[in-house]
Structure formats: structure tokens, C-alpha cells
Amino acid sequence: MTSEPTPAPSSLPTARLPERAAVVDLDAIRHNVGVLRQVADPARVMAVVKADAYGHGAVQVARAALAAGAAWLGVAHISEALALRAAGIEAPILAWLHTPDSNFSAAVAAGIDLGCSGWELDRIVAAAREQQRPARVHLKIDTGLGRNGATAERWDSLVGEAVEYQDEGLLRVVGVFSHLAVADEPHRPETDTQLDAFREAVAVAEDAGCDLEVRHIANSPAVFSRPDAHFDLVRVGISVYGLSPFPDQSSADLGLRPAMTLRATLSQAKRVRADQGVSYGLLYRTRDAATLALVPLGYADGVPRTSSGGPVQIAGETHRVAGRVAMDQVVVDLGPDPEPAALAGAEAVLFGTGDNGGPTADDWARAAGTINYEIVTRISPRVPRVYVGEGA
Ligand SMILES: *Cc1c(COP(=O)(O)O)cnc(C)c1O
User: So where's the catalytic machinery, residue-wise (predicted)?
Assistant: First the structure.
């Protein structure tokens, strides 16, 4: 794996940062897209920017990813795709999760590619008639994940119906796609079964007369672990943000750079006596006299309340959250040594690049019993996003 030495996060302009910020390094996004292009080559890269780009900011990440050579953007909802178009982004965008209340007409009018599992087909065709413009459709086959997508039993008839509409000029079947269930566990056999089913579904569509632009099934883990899953296009989310999709491999192992740093200026630092209880429930007590630092980030900001002892770096050293995460704040026990006065205006980093042993989203995922995906995605709108790097 190519792994350049990781540069310092593009000179975080600490002095000008808001008191609480999720700093997003667009150079890291570009670097990661470059790595993914190399690994996926000759398949092309779809940067998945759903959920506000996993909390990083959809428009900014989309622009950086496209500048770095991503060919497509992917989102769950039509509303997310329309927001990208409204920001002036003209690249191909696929939206794949719909309900009968989704605005298919607006999607067709905006040139959004639409995933279709079956029931959407008539709605998409109605929208194409209304807009007098053929819809671009990616038919989805459920190869085993059991979420959306047509079942194998329904596939032939879905393809048949779509091709009829295609012959009427109402749509073009430009893609066939599916989603993997266990690609983050490369030893499991179900991925082979899913790939076999996928190849079969693609053959059915091609035999029926679909001239496919893209066949796609790979997510981030499959990009790294299953070259035979790359096909024409890979749909990558978490790896664009520099985080590893594997429990036993780090960002650095994959040549990726975490893009988001969650940090705040300390609210307070004070001396307390030994056996001082800390935070609701008094579940933590200081052992000796200690300096406590108050960090103004809590579960309203997306720090999981269920995390226990999450890491926080203050003045170059990593400590653990003492006691419960509150709505607005956490407390960190810095031990007996630091002088509170020396900590005025100091910065607390909950997670970031991981350089020099700093805390990572992976550490918080472990502390909270979840995955790094959730840690970054759940950072709430109360935390201002600040962009650094080229294009910020
Ligand atoms: C979210 C999503 C992806 C991206 O998955 P990562 O593991 O983050 O790379 C790809 N495809 C679909 C259908 C998704 O919902």
C-alpha cells in the first residue's frame, strides 16, 4: 500500500478557530480519493457523501473529491442530491433510497440518477413523462444483504419492465448495482455468494438489452479486500474520510488520512481535592488532589453518552474522560501535576489524525461500543465545521 509520510494537519489555524469546531482537512479528502483511485483502478470512484458527507459537510467534501478525480457522487436521498445540485455541482449523482413521498420529478429534472429496486419504476416513469426527459436508472439487485434491491425471483421481470420503458424512450438503464453485507470481514464466504449473484443479475440485464455504463457493488472494505468486486465503479464512503472500514486495520495501514479533527477550547481548569466526585452520578472520583479540565463538548454535540473513558488530548498528552458525558460537556482528570493557570485557553482534541499518538475516531468507537462511521457522522450541527486545505 502506498503510504506517504503523513504531514501535519494542514496547519490548524488554532487562533482563528471557533471555541468548538470539527476541523475538516480537505487536503486529506483529496489524498484519500487519490489513494482510492489507485487501488480501484481501472474502476472509477463514486464518493459517497450521504448524511452530510458522514458529518464532514457534503458540498465541501463533494467539491474536494471531484477535484481529486472522483467521477461520481452517491447519496441515499433525492433531497441530498438536490442540495448538491443547488450548490452548483454538476457531476453525476446517484440517489438510491426512496419512499413514495420522494420527489422523483425534481430528481429527473435535476439529472439525478435513480436507484430502483422495483416499486419505484412506475413513479420514475411518471416523473420522466412529466419532465419530458428520460430518467437515468440503476437497477438494484438484493444479492444477500436483505435491505433494498429486487430479490432474485423478481429480477427478470424488473429488468423486462425497465427495458420496455427504455424502448419507449422514458428511461435508460445505465447501471446495475448491489450492496455487500460482510466485506469488512474478508474471511467470510457470503461475499463470494453475493458476487456470483451479482454477475448473474448483470448478465440478465445485458442479455435483455441494457447497455450498462456502470456495474457497481464494492463499498470501502471491498475496495481494499476484494479486487474482484470492483467492476466499473466503487462506492466509497468511510475511506474518503480517511477512516478504516476494518476493525483490525488503522487508517495508516491503508494509507489513509483521517479528515476530521474534533476539538474545543477548555472552559475551565481547576484544582480539586482527593476523592472529588465528577459529573452526574458521581461515578468517577479523583484519587489524589487533581486538576480537572472542563471540555465544552457533550452528547448534544454528538459525543456518545455511552462512551466510557474516551480519550482527550490536552497540552500534548492524552487523558480519559472522567465520569459521564453530559449534554454540553465532559470533564478530564489531568492528574496532580498541571497548573490550572497554565491551561487557560488550552485546546482539547477528542479525535483527529492520530499523529504522534493522538486520539482517533477509532478510539472513540471502541469507547462507545460502536464503529468509526457513527462517531464522525453523529457530530451534531451545533459544532461548527471549519475547512482547511486547498479549496477551503
Ligand atoms: C453508505 C453506502 C456506501 C458506502 O459505504 P462505505 O462502507 O462507507 O464505503 C456504499 N453503497 C451504499 C449503497 C451505501 O449505502
Answer: 50 (proton acceptor), 280 (proton acceptor)
